[in-house]
Specification:
The structure holds 2 protein chains of 2 kinds. By secondary structure, chain A is mostly helical. Chain A has 13 helices and no strands. Chain B is an alpha+beta fold. In chain B, strands 2-3-5 form a 3-stranded antiparallel β-sheet, with helices on one face. Chain B has a two-stranded antiparallel sheet with strand order 1-4. Classes of the chains: A mainly alpha, B alpha+beta.
């Protein structure tokens, strides 16, 4: 990309600084749009398909499997359907706010992709305030949602928007504190810098680095679920109470934009969890130089997809919490624990030497605890399958 | 106080852990969906249970045109017109017993879009002529498509011909009886 721009600069004989800067800016915009076209939109669409298939299997159904092989093109059909539908705007709605709200939500989601890395050399912008930018730009989603709720001139939409704002404002604190603990441990806010601080071995990841960061991961994960309005925190769009929440009055492509943002947000959560806690794109050093970037992209995307799967799986496991329970979880449990994690990380980083035997022992112990939890989980799954006497089908093709 | 607080955390982690194991195990099970219509494990007719209430159908050969079904139908979706024919014996579908048949329908219409599959016509039928099939695919762009006319034109002509023949025969027998009647009476009288 940069080489191509440099060749353009040489060919057009551009000398002045501002012209060069302008050309670079234009190049970045084109690059960002390419990511939008080639990565984010298909990713969000494909996630919607995967989510429906997983939901179906968890509920002993089959799910969409007719459009294309195994229904893999279902999301294109859904998108086309939304494009062809009438774009309704209620008579008493505020037309300007109503129209720009979905774009704000989408912008808040899409802005985060600027600092999400894919590989060592594959990132749109390696900002030195990466994580801070990420948390800040996500706030656009809150603005967009409350704008959608307000502009719809509908009491359900307004209630949904207010709930969402309340939820995002509350949960920004624990999620920010959990990420701050990572920043403390890594000594940088740059997303690439945080990944470089970790290693490719699981016990070199931030997740197992200290007991405090281990807890911080769960705090971050729960808070991120709440921030993106995913079940069990989907109060803003609780169907049984609020019709559809803030997007009640939306139809056609505007409605699709909200959902595009929601599903892409899944990837954002998973990618932040991956880069901050799970070693990001770190691959072993014996991977040959030629295919290194590809392996790094695969590594990062696979880790992210695993956490997306976990988020989807949580959605089909846990029921929705009440408003008071949601607030209680945030202010009575996550925020105090966040403080403990923050102070604990600071103390740990000050007094425990990074490369010492004690630190390594703690890492291995935490890793073993996680492995034991995984094994215990598999045993429980096997127990459930055996007790139910149900027929097992591992083949996802039905 | 602290113990209660930590207890809450412990309880939520363990219960969520168990719940996730349950849903994960469900994800590995065989889906129970029947993928109608093109990916069923067996032909659709075999999958439908024996007592399924599909479309009504009438075996006109054993229908004795007693009109019980028409009368019992709570929404009047059955219309029957019949004629007298020669008395014949038909075999009941239910128990194989011979049942006398003296009338044959020339019109037997069932409006399946009105039918509510209550089986009130099936139960009183003495020969089991009217019954539920396993057919259920009734979607159609034309409302008259599901208006069954069970007696087709050919059968109608045949039945009317049979009825006319029966009437002629009955007429002839009556005339013969009327002619024969006095003679028989006199012969009886002479015998006496």
């Amino acid at each position: 990309m940069q080489q191509y721009l440099d060749s353009l600069i040489a060919r057009w004989g551009i000398q002045t600084d501002w012209q060069v800067a302008l050309l670079y800016a234009a190049g970045m915009l084109v690059f960002a749009s390419l990511i939008l076209l080639l990565w984010v939109a298909p990713l969000a669409g494909f996630t919607s398909f995967i989510e429906r298939r997983i939901a179906a299997r968890i509920q002993s159904r089959v799910g969409p499997n007719r459009v294309g092989p195994q229904g893999i093109l279902q999301w294109i059909a859904d998108g086309l359907k939304c494009l062809l539908k009438e774009d309704l705007i209620p008579r008493d709605a505020d037309p300007i706010l109503f129209k720009i709200a979905p774009y704000l939500v989408f912008m808040g989601m899409f802005g985060t992709f600027a600092v999400l890395p894919f590989a060592e050399k594959l990132i749109v912008a390696d900002l030195n305030v990466g994580l801070f930018y990420l948390v800040a730009v996500t706030a656009f989603i809150a603005v967009g949602i409350i704008m959608a709720g307000w502009a719809s001139n509908n009491k359900w939409a307004l209630l949904g928007g207010m709930r969402s704002a309340n939820q995002i404002v509350s949960y920004e604190i624990p999620s920010g504190m959990a990420l701050l603990a990572v920043v403390l441990a890594s000594g940088t806010m740059s997303t690439q810098g945080i990944i470089r601080e970790q290693g490719w071995l699981p016990w070199d990841w931030n997740l197992f680095r200290t007991p405090f960061l281990f807890i911080a991961f769960f705090i971050y994960f729960i808070a991120a679920l709440a921030e993106s309005n995913r079940t069990p925190f989907d109060l803003p769009e609780g169907e049984s109470e609020l019709v559809a929440g803030y997007n009640t009055e939306y139809s056609g492509m505007r409605f699709a934009f909200f959902f595009l943002a929601e599903w892409a947000e899944l990837y954002v959560i998973a990618a932040v969890a991956t880069l901050a806690f799970l070693g990001g794109w770190q691959v072993p050093s014996f991977v040959p130089e030629g295919g290194r970037t590809l392996v790094q992209v695969l590594c990062f995307v696979c880790k992210s997809f695993f956490w997306m799967f976990v988020i989807i799986w949580i959605r089909w496991t846990l029921p929705r919490v009440r408003v008071d329970q949601m607030m209680e979880l945030c202010w009575k449990y996550l925020v105090p624990m966040g403080f403990v994690v923050l102070v604990g990380t600071a103390v740990w980083e000050t007094f425990v030497p990074r490369q010492g035997a004690a630190a390594l022992a703690v890492r291995l112990a935490l890793f073993l605890i996680a492995v034991a939890a995984g094994v215990r989980f598999m045993l429980r799954v096997r127990y459930n399958l055996r007790e139910s006497g149900a027929q097992v089908r591992l083949n996802p093709i039905v | 106080m602290i113990a209660e607080y930590l207890g809450h955390i412990k309880r939520s982690t363990t219960t969520i852990f168990e719940g996730m194991a349950v849903t994960f195990s469900h994800m590995l099970r065989q889906p129970i969906t029947t993928q109608y219509p093109d990916r069923t494990s067996r032909p659709m007719l075999d999958l439908i249970p024996e007592r399924y209430r599909g479309f009504l159908w009438v075996d006109l050969d054993i229908c004795i045109s007693c009109l019980l079904c028409e009368r019992y139908c709570p929404i009047d979706c059955i219309k029957i017109e019949d004629v007298r024919i020669d008395r014949i014996l038909v075999e009941s579908r239910l128990d194989g017993k011979p049942t006398p048949k003296v009338k044959d329908p020339v019109r037997f219409d069932i409006n399946l879009y009105k039918c509510m599959y209550c089986a009130l016509c099936v139960e009183p039928c003495p020969t089991g002529a009217i019954f539920f099939t396993k057919e259920f695919e009734g979607a159609s762009p034309d409302l008259t498509d599901m208006h069954l006319r069970l007696v087709d034109e050919q059968r109608r002509v045949d039945v009317l011909a049979a009825a006319a023949a029966a009437e002629r025969k009955a007429q002839a027998a009556k005339e013969a009886k009327a002619k024969k009647g006095p003679e028989a009476a006199t012969s009886e009288a002479t015998d006496a």
